[in-house]
Amino acid sequence: TASGSSCNFIISDVDDENINDQSDYDFSIIQPITVTDPNGGENWNIGITYDINWDNYTGNNANIEYSIDAGANWIVVSENVSMNLTSYNWLVPDTPSENCLIKVSDVNNPSINDFSNATFTISTPSIEIISPNGGEIWEGASSEVILWTSENISQLKIDFSTNHQEMKIYD
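RESULT FIELD:
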C-alpha cells in the first residue's frame, strides 16, 4: 500500500503524453489504523493490566478510548499516544459490561480511526467457598471434598492453614 505526504496524480493521454493534467496540490496517503486486541469476544477482568494493540500506523499520535455501551458513548483511556508503540498497557477500570469496544483514532483527524470488530467483556472476578465454610468437623487423615464457585478466574490456588500457618495444597 502506498503512503506518503507529497502525493499527486498525473493523468495523460496514452498516445500523446503532452496532453495531461496534474493534481494542483499535494495530498497525503496514510496507512489505516487497525485495532487488533481486544477485537471481540475477550473477557478482561477489572483491576488487571492488558495490552491494547493496533497495527503499525504511519500517521500522527492517537487517542485511545473505550465504550461500555457498544460505541454509543466513549471514555478516554489515554490521549496523544505515540503510534510507533503499537501497544498500550491498560489497567482495566471498574466498569463491568458485556458491550465494550476499544477505539484508536488519529489525534489531528479523528475520522481516521478503528475500533474493535466486536464487543468484549469487562468483568468482575469472584470466588466463593461453599464447603467447608465454617462449623464443619473433619476427621484427620480423611478424604474430604472442597467446593467453591468462581467466575472470570483463569487459574486457582488453594492453600490450607491450621492455626494460621499456611501450607500450599494446589497451585
